[in-house]
């Protein structure tokens, strides 16, 4: 997605989120984040994904207890993205927390945003479904692509494959099917009723096809 078009759609929301948490958006931080989401190694975790997340959050904002914190967590949730690393979420969460504290946000706010970003590690073994509405909404928004229309879902799969182009097909494909099977086994997949109604039927069709290969 073109950066100028993205900023035209979401620049005001960025500033409003900081105002809503009682802080001022740090100078230059928005440009830094946009630059990160435009890095060449990214195929899916780009401004397109962030745009889709923020758009869906806006449609379901009423489900959040602290919508500004959910929004800021989304802005940061893929800020660090290296397919060779296993600590992307931790580094993104730390960046978010540090930025909020430096900007004068309350420590509790910074801690909650940090926790929200960490929650996007999806599928940790033994993890229980979160009970707080903000985490549930954030996770559903991040996974909404699984319930996208077929053409967009197919594009998503191509984008993920591009990010892992260095992985041989005989390694990538079974691991990918295993991951998709894990999502398909979730009952329910989406934790918020509104997104479940909108996305779950299509998500199950997409995932079943992906697992079948």
From TrEMBL:
Keyword Ligase: no
Molecular-function annotations in GO: hydrolase activity
Origin superkingdom: Bacteria
Keywords: Hydrolase
Protein name (record): Putative metal-dependent HD superfamily phosphohydrolase
């Amino acid at each position: 997605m073109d950066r100028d078009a993205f900023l035209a759609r979401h620049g005001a929301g960025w500033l409003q989120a900081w105002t809503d948490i009682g802080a001022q958006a740090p100078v230059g931080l928005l440009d830094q984040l946009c630059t990160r989401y435009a890095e060449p190694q990214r195929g899916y975790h780009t401004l397109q994904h962030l745009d889709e997340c923020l758009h869906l959050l806006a449609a379901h904002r009423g489900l959040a207890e602290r919508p500004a914190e959910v929004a800021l967590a989304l802005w940061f949730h893929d800020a660090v993205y290296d397919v060779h690393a296993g600590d992307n979420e931790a580094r993104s969460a730390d960046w978010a927390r540090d930025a909020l504290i430096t900007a004068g946000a309350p420590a509790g706010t910074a801690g909650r945003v940090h926790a929200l970003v960490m929650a996007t590690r999806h599928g940790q073994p033994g993890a229980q479904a979160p009970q707080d509405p903000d985490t549930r909404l954030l996770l559903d928004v991040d996974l909404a692509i699984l319930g996208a229309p077929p053409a967009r879902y197919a594009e998503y799969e191509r984008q993920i494959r591009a990010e892992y182009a260095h992985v041989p097909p005989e390694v990538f494909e079974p691991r990918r099917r295993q991951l998709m099977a894990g999502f398909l086994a979730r009952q329910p997949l989406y934790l918020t009723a509104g997104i479940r109604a909108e996305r779950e039927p299509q998500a199950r069709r997409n995932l079943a096809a992906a697992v079948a290969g």
